[in-house]
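lol forgot to send this yesterday, sorry. struct tokens for the thing we talked abt
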């Protein structure tokens, strides 16, 4: 890939390593932040929270 010529110079190796660290930081920075762990509450089309009664009404609805 880069070959042994890259590491003949300390400066070129340092710049290469800095690029790898920069790339890793840039990729890790794009990760979503927060600690929701699936605790978000569902909402209907109007933005109101969905309750157990709403879910039961949908489950018991009959389609003709």
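and heres what i got for the seq, position by position
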């Amino acid at each position: 890939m880069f070959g042994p010529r890259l590491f003949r110079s300390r400066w070129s190796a340092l710049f290469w390593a800095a690029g790898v660290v920069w790339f890793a930081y840039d990729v890790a920075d794009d990760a979503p932040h927060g600690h929701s762990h699936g605790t978000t509450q569902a909402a209907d089309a109007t933005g109101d929270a969905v309750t157990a009664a709403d879910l039961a009404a949908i489950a018991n609805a009959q389609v003709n």
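The CA atoms of residues 37 and 58 lie 26 Å apart. anyway ping me if u want another try
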